[in-house]
Records
---
Amino acid sequence: MRITRSVAGRRRRTAFVATTGLTVTALLLTGCGGSSDSDKGADADGNITLTLADFGQFGYKEAGLFEKYHELNPKITVKEDTTAEEKNYYPKLLQQLNSGSGLADVQGIEVGRIKEIVDTKADSFADLSKVIGVDEWVSWKAKQATTPSGAVIGAGTDIGPMSLCYNRELFEKAGLPTDRAEVAKLTEGGWEDFLALGEQFKKKAPEGTYFMDSASAMFNAVVSSSPEQYYDASGNPIYDKSASVEQGWKLAAEAASKKLTQGLAQFEDPWQAALRKGTIATVVCPAWMAGQISTYAGDANKGKWDITSAPGDTSANWGGSFLAVPKSGKNVAEATKLVKWLTAPEQQAAVFKAIGVFPSNQGAYDLPDVKNATLPYFNDAPIGQIYADGAKSIPEAVLGPKDGVIKDSISTQINNMEQRGTSPDDAWDAAVRTIDKAIG
C-alpha cells in the first residue's frame, strides 16, 4: 500500500475526481526532445533510463505520465522507486547525499524537509531557476525551495490548501445545516466558531459520534494558516513563543476537555474504522484528505459527506512536495527536462484528476480538469473552485529545518490529552522536552 506523503503521517489514496477529459494533445504539446549529449548515462544506442525516487503516492503512475513521456521521447524510459513511508525515505536520502552515492536522477522532497535541504544540501542539487518558470508557481511554494543566492533546488509538485470535510448525515441528525454555504457561514469567524459549532453538534449528536476526529489536525490547520509558525525569519525556533502555536494549543486543549474529538491518530486503523462506521462529523481537509475519506469510509457512505471552505478568512497549507535533480547524476540534463515536464500545468492537472492532489502550478487552475472538478463522493462538491480559492489566501510562512519534528512532537501530546487525559500543562512540558532535545 503506497500511502504516506508527509512527515506528520499524512497518507493519501485516489480521490476519484470527476472532471472533463484532459486531452492527449495537451500532454503532447509539453513534451521534451531526445537525449542530450551532456548526459553520460546513455547506452550505445542512445537510450537512457531515468530513475525517480519518491514516497507515498505522487500520482505519476496513476496518471499514466511515465508512459506518455516515453511516447514523446522513445529513447527515454522512466523508472519509479517508491518508498511507502516518507519517514523511512528521508533518512535514506540524507545518507545518500552524505555518501555521494545511490541517488536517483530525480529525488522527491517533502515540504517539511525542504528547508533543511535548502540550508544544508543545496549544493548537491541542480539549480532549476532558469528551467521551470518559477513565476508559474504560487509565490510561497517557489520560495520554499529557493536558496539565499536565488537558486531553486526543487520544482513544486502539489500543495494542500485547506477545506473542511463534514458528514451531512450526522449534521442533519444533530439539527445542523447541511448546505455547504450555510456551514461555511457558521465558521466564518475562525476556529473558535468551529468549536462553537462542535458544542451545538454535541447537544443533539447521535450516540457514539464525535464532532471531529483529531484535535491535532485542527491544531495543524490553525498554525498553518499563520505566517508565524515554528521559526522566525532569522531561522530561530520560536514554537514556544509563537502566537499561532499558542492559539492552536489552546483550541486543541479545549476540544479535548469538552470531548468534541474522538481522539484518533489520523490514518491509523481506529481512524479508518471510525470513518467506515460513520462516527466522525468533521475532518480538517487539505486537498489530498478527500481521497482518504472516500477510501476508508467506503461506498456505503458515498453522498453522506460534503466539502466547504475552511473556518476563517485565511486558508492554510498542509502538505506538498518537490522534485529535485542531484548534480551527481549521470543524466542531469534529461532529468531536468523530465522534472520540467512533470510539473507543467497539463501534467499537474492530470495528476489532480487521477489522485486528487492539488497543483502548485497556477497555470493548471484554469484548465478544465481543475477548474470544473467536482467530487461525486462528496455530494459533487466543486473542489476545483474550493481549493483554488483556498490557495489564493494561504499566507507566506517561514519554514524551519525541524518543522516536521516539532509538528509530530506536539501532535503526540495533543493525542495524549485526548486519549489519556493528560493535563494541558503536562502535555506541553513533555512536547517541549522532546522538541528541545531534537533540535538542540
---
Amino acid sequence: MNIERKNLVGKLTSGSREELMPSTGQSNTESTPQTIVQMRDGMGWPAKDITTHSLLIEDTVLKGHIPVRVYRKEKLKGKVLPVLVYYHGGGFFGGSIQNVEQICRTFADRADLAVVSVGYRLSPENPFPAGLMDCYKVVEVLATEGHLFHISSDKIFVAGDSAGGNLAISVAILDASIMTTGYVKKIVSYYPVVDLTSTGKGEFWDTRAIKTQSEEEKELVTEYINGFSSLEAQVEDWYCGASINRSNELISPLFASDKILSQLPPVKIIVGEFDPLRQQVESFAEKLLAAKTEGSMTVYPGVIHAFMDKIGIYDEAEEGILEGITFLKGDN
C-alpha cells in the first residue's frame, strides 16, 4: 500500500469553494430539521455525459429484489468481459443507481469491461446488514452465473463512493475472510467511510490539522467539516441501530485485524484533500500498509467530499475514474 498526495497545496478549487459557501449562510437558530425524504431528494449533483462510445444499458432485478443496471460498450455486445460492480454513496440511507449514472457510464466508456450498478436496500428501513448482503449477493450471482451476463466470473472487481466505498471494502472482507469465496479480485474505493464508531467526534474530526492558504479558507473548511460531522452521527444511527457493535469490521473496516486486511485483494483508495473523511481514510491506509495489503491511496488536492459526482464538471472526477481503470488493468 503506497500513499500519494499529488503535491497538495492547500487551496480549494473554485468548484469546491462554491459548494462550501452556501453552508456558511444558513441560520442555525431558525433552521428546521429535514425529513429523511427531503434529505434523500436533495442528494446528488449535476453531472454531464462525457461518454464517446454508444453504450448498451439494461435494467434488471437479481435475487428477486435487488435492482441493478448493467453497462457495456455496444461494440462489445456478446463478448465475455471483466465486470466492475459499483455501489453508490448516500450515507447508507440515500443515493441510488441514478445518482451514479455518469460515473458508471464513464467507467464502461473508458474501459473494456461491464459495469453493474447496484440498488441495495437503504436504512433506516433496512439497517445493517441488509444493504451489505444485497451487495455481496450481486457479486455471488455474477460469480456463479456470469455466463448469463457475458461476464468473466474470475475477473470481478468492486468499487463505490463514500458509503458505497465502505460497502466495496466490506463486501471484499465478507468475500475473502468470512465466506472465503474469493470472488473479488480488486477494490476501488472513493473517499470511503471506514469508522462508524466516532459518530462525528474525536481525532478524525479535529479540524486543527487542516492546512489551507488563508484564514478564510480555514474557516470555510472547518464549518463544512463540522456540519458534515453532525450529519454523520445521525446517518450512522440509522444504519447501525442502537445494539450493533460498530467496531465490527463489516461496519467499520478500520477495526479489521491485520490478518483480515492481509487477505484482501489489492485496494485502490482515492480521497480529496478537504474531505471530512480524509483523516480516517488515511488511518485505514496506514493499517493496510502495516498488513502488507497490495494497493495504493491517492489524495487529490483542493477537492472535498463527493467530487466524483461531478463528472464533466470537475477534471478530478474523470481523473479518478481513469486512475481506477489503470489500477484495475495493472498487475497490482
---
Amino acid sequence: MATSNISDTFRKAEETDIERIWQIIGQAKAQMQRLGSLQWDESYPAIEHIRQDIQDGNGYVICREDRVVAYGVISFDGEPVYKEIEGKWSNDLPYVIVHRLAIADEMKRQGMAKQFMLQAEEVSRKKGVYNFRVDTKYDNTYMLRLIDTLGFRYCGEVYYRNNSARKAFEKTIRPHSHPIGISGYTIREATLMDAVPIFEAIDKDREDLRIWLPFVDSLKSAVDEERFLQSVLAVPYEQRDPVYILEQGETICGLAGFHFSDAPNHRTEIGYWLLPAYRGKGIITHAVRYLCQWAVCKRNINRIQIRCAVENHPSNAIPKRLGFTLEGTERDGELLVSGEYVDTNVYSILKKEVESWNRKSN
C-alpha cells in the first residue's frame, strides 16, 4: 500500500527484514540512552521479540525505496497489564495496540511514526476494531507529543516488568465514510462514540419514530443506545451484523443495518429508519442499495430480506423501488407500541439480482 508520494510502502515484516529491523531498534535504544529515557533497555526489546512478532504476523514495516525505515507491532491479542489499569478505559471492547515502534535515524522528524500509527488505524478498520490503545513512559516526550497529536485520551497508569509505570491512552478510530450517490450524504459504521448523538436524534423525533419502531419506547437514555452498540461491536467483524449511520456532513440523518443474519445459509435482513427532515430525498433507497452490494461483495450473502408493516407505505416503497420481490405477508407480524398487531410484507432480493445492478449500470 503506497503511503506517500516518495514511494513509501507499508507491509507486514518478513524474516529477511530482521537484520535491518534490529539495526533500527539499536538506533532507537541509543537515542533513548542519550535522552535519558528508560522506555527500553539492553534486554528489551530483544531480537527474539522481533522474530516472534514476525512469526505471529504482528510485525509491520514502512519501506522507502524498498529499504526498511520503520518497524512496529500491530496487535489485536490484548495486553494483559491493561486489565489492571489504575484508572479506567472507556469500554471493554476489542482494541488494537502498537508496540515496539522504532524509526531509522535518517527518517527522524519526517512524520514516519505518525504515518505508522495511521496505518495501524487502517489495519484496525479492516478488522472492524475501532478502539486504539497505547502506553508510554513518562519520560518519552516524543511519543507523548505524537499521542497528543493523534487525539488520544489519557486513561491512567499501567505497570510492566519491574513495576515500571507507564501512561496509558486510548482513542476511537472513526470508520471511513462512503458516498451513497446523493451529494453531501454518506454512510459509515457506527462506533460506541455515536451513542449520544444517535440517542439525541431519536429523542428529538421520538413521537414520529415510535409509530413504526417499537424499540424507541425502550430507549430511555444514551446509556441504552451505548449498551446496544456495545453488543453489536463486541461480535467479531466477520460474524457481526453492522449498524450504519447515515449522515449529512457529520449530522445524523438515520440508521440502517443488518440483523438476523444466517451465515450457513448466506442470508440476512436489512432494517432502517430516517428522521422526518430527511425523508423524500432517496437517502434510504441509496443506502439500502449500498448495503446490498456490500453484503454480496464482502459477505457472500445470497439472500437479503426486508420486512415492512403493510401500512407503512414509505418503508414498503424502498424494496419495491430496488426491485425486491414481495414474497408474502406475515399475519400479525409485528406488535406496535400502540398495542396493535400489524401484518408485515416480506421482500427479498438475491445475489444474482444485486449483481445485475452493476451490469445494467455499465
